[in-house]
Predict the 3D structure of the following.
Amino acid sequence: MEDTIVAISTSLGRGAISIIRVSGNDAVYRVNNIFKGKDLTKAKSHTIHYGYIVDGEEEIDEVLVSVMIAPKTFTTEDIVEINCHGGIATTNRILELLVTNGARIAEPGEFTKRAFLNGRISLLEAESVSDLIESKSEKQRVMALNGVNGRLTNMVRKIRDNILNIVANIEVNIDYPEYDDAIEVTHDYLKKQVYTIESDLKLLLSNARVGKIIRSGIDIALVGRPNVGKSSILNALLNEEKAIVTDISGTTRDVIEASMSLNGIEIILIDTAGIRETEDVVEKIGVDKSKQIIESADLVILVLNNNEELTKDDQELLESIKEKSHIIFVNKTDLDERLNLKTMQNVVRGNTKDLNGLENLKQKIIEMYNLDKINEKDLTYLSNVRQITLVKEALENIEQVLQDLEKNIPIDMLEIHLRNAFEQLGILIGETYEDELIDKLFKNFCLGK
Ligand SMILES: Nc1nc2c(ncn2[C@@H]2O[C@H](COP(=O)(O)OP(=O)(O)OP(=O)(O)O)[C@@H](O)[C@H]2O)c(=O)[nH]1
Ligand SMILES: [Mg+2]
């Protein structure tokens, strides 16, 4: 790990300034070799210097160089950042110069990887750096920052400490029963402690759902029989003629996606082909896709026609969305009511002619996902499948402990599950880790991070 790495940290293209970052024990020395202006090896930490990057006699660019000496740097190694003029040619030339001078091109995410391996940040914080770079909205940014600044890591550490504390107390009770100062670990004492851990873990998981919404929005599919008005609803919600609308059944053949915002959350609306039995080859493919989308969407809006009696197809559709999170939108309320719908939950009525009921539809979505209550500043979210899986596994172990406690199983038998949970949360923040996993994680990073 001692070698000096270099990467272009800004995106390579047209721009006023580019930053080339160098990290490693001899970062200052390497840059100094190609710098004209002053002796950087004598520079104080966290200072900026004006001068030229040179290749022998040739001046390559007029630059500002920041020198940051270990250990108070991002990687905890010496870091030098060259602020040069932007554009591809200049930036690449300086990068090449550094490589000929003995620096190695960094792998994607290697700066952050070093920060982690050198103990400067936890694995959760490192993953959040990647989320921060990927952030497209203000909510995403604030959420990622909560990860970067260690809030999430601290929450996990606290839970982990509590588990360790319990394990330690159990051990003391077993090994030193005569030791008077030790807390007597009874089943009741443990229950209280372990239930707290359970609820902390559950909170992390339920927040993760909100985190996913902030990060990737909500996929909402409009499904139903042909001609009930799915495409019209899409257009009305978007306020734009995005999808073709005709009175011919089977107008929409393919999936149409469009994005809108509701309370600052991205909604991905998916208009689908009307579902019916058909011999038409193209339409059939569309119908199959619609059925798949019912499975994959976060929320399904089943559209029914107020002006027609409930058909067998409608009934089948109602059956197929029963287990999914769904809203039933009874469309065409401007026409006579012929629909015989039993009392059902989550029904919104309206039409796309005078736009009645569409606000109610939006309001229903807001309610279902508590979009008006999302406060990204207070909440700390797990951000990916790896993290969520680990917390789930830890929770399963904790729940096992609780079950065993209810059955009055001897206390020394509970330790194994507590240790497992401790271990899983350790992997989560990177306090125990496998090299291969770490390599894989950091490869997803942009270069220069
Ligand atoms: N009266 C009335 N007609 C509507 C309403 N919404 C849609 N329509 C009409 O219903 C017909 C079908 O509308 P579409 O939006 O194409 O229906 P669809 O569900 O997308 O149909 P497919 O793409 O074939 O599955 C069109 O003639 C629309 O003008 C409504 O609220 N009231
Ligand atoms: Mg359509």
In short: The chain has a mean pLDDT of 90. The CA atoms of residues 33 and 233 lie 65 Å apart.
